[in-house]
Amino acid sequence: YANEVGESFRALVPVFVVWASYGVATAYVTADAVDKGKKAMAAVNPQEEGGAMQAAVAMVDTFIWQGLASVAIPGFTINRICAGSLYLMGSLTRWPLPVRKWTTTAVGLTAIPFIIKPIDRSVDFLMDSSLRKLYKSNKKPPPL
User: Within this chain, do residues 5 and 34 fall inside the same structural domain, yes or no?
Assistant: First the structure.
């Protein structure tokens, strides 16, 4: 949730802090993908043909899924929620700018738990409907 928190605080912190939060999130996504690839490689029989390919698919699938579900879509969503709330408070209230910025941050942080499941489900549907069709097989994938 690093980049979502970073986006929530965008109105209050220098932009490099927000970009750093994306760096942390991307590092997590990369580490998770490498971990899934290693686990998939350890689960296949060394004599079985295509074991390395199964591990590569597990790693790439995890990286794309996590990149979309944990970084790109939530970051964009929180960014737009915060920008919209800051704009609306500027239009509808006479609150001082610091109060509007802190309120925007609170709105962004509060929204994070509500956007997670819908985004995860949407990314599952997107991946199942597109990319995963390319590498689906009749074989049962190795347990991760």
Answer: yes
3, with CB counted inside 10 A (0-12, 13-18, 19+), is buried
| DSSP 8-state assignment for residue 93 | -
Going by C-alpha positions, the residue among 81, 70, 58 that lies closest to residue 24 is: 70
pTM over 0.70: yes
Of the candidates 128, 110, 144, the one whose C-alpha atom is nearest the C-alpha of residue 64 is 128
Q: Measure Cα distances from 114 to 48, 64, 78, 111 in Å.
A: 43, 22, 11, 5
- Pick the residue with more confidence: 44 or 66? 66
Same domain, 65 and 35: no
Residue-number span of the structural domain to which 7 is assigned:
1-43
Q: Is 60 in the same domain as 109?
A: yes
How confident is the model over 47-93, as pLDDT tens digits? 777 778 888 999 999 999 999 999 999 999 999 999 999 999 999 99
Together in a domain, 59 and 96? yes
